[in-house]
Amino acid sequence: MQIDVITLFPDFFTSPLQEGLLGRALVKEIARVNLVNPRRFALDKHHRVDDEPYGGGVGMLLKPEPIFSAVESLSVLAKPNIILLTPQGQPLNQPLLRKLSTEYDQLVLICGHYEGVDDRIRHLVDQEISLGDFVLTCGEIPALALINGVVRLLPGTVGKIESLKSESFEAGLLDYPQYTRPSTFRGFEVPEVLRSGNHQAIEKWRYQQQLKRTQERRSDLWEKWLKSFQSNK
Prior knowledge:
The protein is α/β, with parallel strands linked by helices. It has 2 domains: 150 residues, SPOUT methyltransferase, trefoil knot domain (Alpha/beta knot, 3-Layer(aba) Sandwich); 66 residues, tRNA(m1g37)methyltransferase, domain 2 (Trp Operon Repressor, Chain A), CATH 1.10.1270. Strands 2-1-6-5-7 form a 5-stranded parallel sheet. The protein has a two-stranded antiparallel sheet with strand order 3-4. A two-stranded antiparallel ribbon has the order 8-9. α3 links the parallel β5 and β6. α3 packs across α4 and α6 packs across α7. It is elongated, with a radius of gyration of 22 Å. The mean pLDDT is 93.
């Protein structure tokens, strides 16, 4: 997969893209990340990419010309998706990450900044995505989260594909609690069923824990899962 990032701060991505599973996936060319600074396409001698909003207001907006030129400079693959990272977008979740990882061969991520972007930039994009109902200082943070979430779903990134299937949100439920050695730590015991060797009992316990955790911690997910479960009966 090709991932192009339109960002005023390409150094923001340097260390995260070199670490852990994500770094190894990029070394193996499971995905490629190309960082493009729109300042290269600014029209004035000062490489200015922002300006005051028409009608007045606080802060500065990203100008349309450098963003359009940066996107138009890219080589376009067969199935691209141009995404603006903005608090006004569709919330990022696991089903959306799966869709992005399977339906496209190129993602172009536009990182917003300052007080936002000139609204004409939205004519460029196919989709707007938000990390959640809160405001950050830059679009680089949600862009990095999206890259991480997509690349880890690509074949070859995670060694055991089965580990992806039992994670939180994959079946509409939160993940079950997990433990490792020692069996006793500061008076806290690993549940006996997990040490029993009875795989059927373990699977049942894990499923029950998923139901319990989701109901207790995420009532929104629980209601959605219940509707889906009842409709599939």
